[in-house]
Write a structure and sequence with these properties.
The chain is of the alpha+beta class and 230 residues long. The chain contains 7 helices and 8 strands, in the order H-E-H-H-E-E-H-E-E-E-H-E-E-H-H.
Length: 230
């Protein structure tokens, strides 16, 4: 299915992993070619059969597969066409998909399923499957926090926010942190980043100066209904 929402797409991949779809292939394709590819996968690997049919195939020891996809907008100024990022997820079992495709195993650290922007990866932390920020995305936040906290006074921009003086740069960064998708492990990482932010602020900024806002929490991602992209 071609999902309209990135968050819904990520949630369905997480659910698929929780249902035993541990193998996958992924890639980009032009939007106008996606339907042809989807029909090919449906014909070769029965990726569009019903849930009941897939359950019967599983009981018989056969592999089952499901295709997930989301649109990736091109850059109009660069005349780039709209593309689709797809993930074909596959369960263990006998079937041509395991012999015809070079499947990756998302349970292995080296081949974790990672979003194309390299910001999030799907992992199992011995509790359940969830999305978390990639190490590179996490490190960029830490570097920005330290950079902002260590800015000299002449480079700081102070604003009034709810009748309280605030540092504009750190408030913008906090807004970005608290707009991250609220999957369980992302929430944990945001909490650790905020803890680091406050420690750096205390270490590098005067106690009498503007302090970062105390934001309560990052909301959970609730179940999102399917909505197909047009």
């Amino acid at each position: 299915m071609l999902y309209e929402s990135k968050l819904t797409f990520m949630q369905r991949l997480q659910q698929a992993a929780g249902n035993g779809y541990y193998h996958y292939i992924t890639g980009h394709i032009e939007r106008e070619k996606f339907d042809t590819m989807a029909r090919k996968f449906a014909q070769l690997y029965e990726s569009e059969i019903s849930r009941q049919s897939k359950a019967r195939r599983k009981r018989a020891g056969a592999a089952t597969s499901t295709l997930f996809a989301m649109p990736v907008r091109g850059h109009p100024q660069q005349d780039q066409p709209e593309r689709v990022w797809f993930v074909l997820m596959v369960k263990n079992g006998a079937g041509r998909v395991h012999t015809r495709e070079r499947l990756q195993d998302l349970r292995q650290k080296q081949t974790r399923l990672t979003m194309p922007d390299d910001r999030y990866q799907l992992v199992h932390d011995r509790v359940s499957w969830s999305w978390q920020m990639t190490p590179s995305h996490l490190q960029k936040y830490r570097e920005r926090i330290h950079l902002i906290a260590s800015l000299p006074p002449h480079r700081r921009r102070i604003i009034e926010l709810d009748n309280t003086p605030r540092d504009l740069a750190i408030e913008r960064l906090q807004d970005q942190l608290y707009s991250e998708p609220g999957f369980r492990l992302v929430r944990r990482q945001v909490g650790l980043l905020v803890k680091y932010l406050r420690a750096e602020w205390k270490r590098l900024r005067p106690a009498a100066g503007p302090q970062p806002r105390q934001i309560s929490y990052l909301p959970y991602i609730r179940f999102r209904p399917n909505k197909q992209a047009k």
